[in-house]
């Protein structure tokens, strides 16, 4: 089980580190804060660039902490915030298998990792925190914190995006 947790934690963590650095620095073919902020604004976020930077920090920071297995529930909560925002602002508008399944999969994976704990090969274990930072309440807590932060973000910093122009028949 420890090797499986290590593989899952490192893969998901590195993936989110990559997504975060796309938003923050334009690495890996990303668009940086300005480009990502423009996309966020087109999805209805009133402050596109600052929200893009916060999302990038949550992804890069959460991904790094998750890959290391350090304060794992906090890392998972940071990633879960971004996934909940992505689900409710972008992909939920589409059918399940046409857009939101990947974000839901990542959300479930990080909440499960918060509940299970980082495993034997983690900094939480090396420090002696693994028993204190795992269990049902850590998973539920990570999800609850993410849901609360996402509620605030989606309520106060997100408006309905402007309608997309449609092609007129001639």
Write the layout of secondary structure elements.
Blueprint: H1 2-25, H2 32-42, H3 48-68, H4 72-89, H5 101-116, H6 123-127, H7 136-156
Helix pairs in contact: 1-2, 1-3, 2-3, 3-4, 4-5, 4-7, 5-7
Comma- or semicolon-separated keywords:
single chain; elongated; 170 residues; mainly alpha
Describe the protein in words.
The chain has 170 residues and is mainly α. It contains seven helices and no strands. The chain has helices at residues 2-25, 32-42, 48-68, 72-89, 101-116, 123-127, 136-156. The longest helix has 24 residues, at 2-25. The protein is elongated, with a radius of gyration of 17 Å. 39% of the residues are buried. The model has no long low-confidence stretch (mean pLDDT 91).
Quick recap:
The protein is mainly α and 170 residues long. The protein has helices spanning 2-25, 32-42, 48-68, 72-89, 101-116, 123-127, 136-156.
Q: Order of SSEs, N→C?
A: HHHHHHH
From the N-terminal CA to the C-terminal CA, the straight-line distance is 62 Å
Overall 3D shape: elongated
Helix/strand/pairing category = mainly alpha
How much is the average pLDDT?
91
Q: Largest sheet, described in full?
A: none
DSSP helix count? 7
Helix content range = 55-70%
- The count of DSSP E runs of length 2 or more, i.e. the number of strands, is 0
Catalogue the unreliable spans. Answer: none
Rg estimate, integer Å: 17 Å
Report the sheet-strand fraction.
under 5%
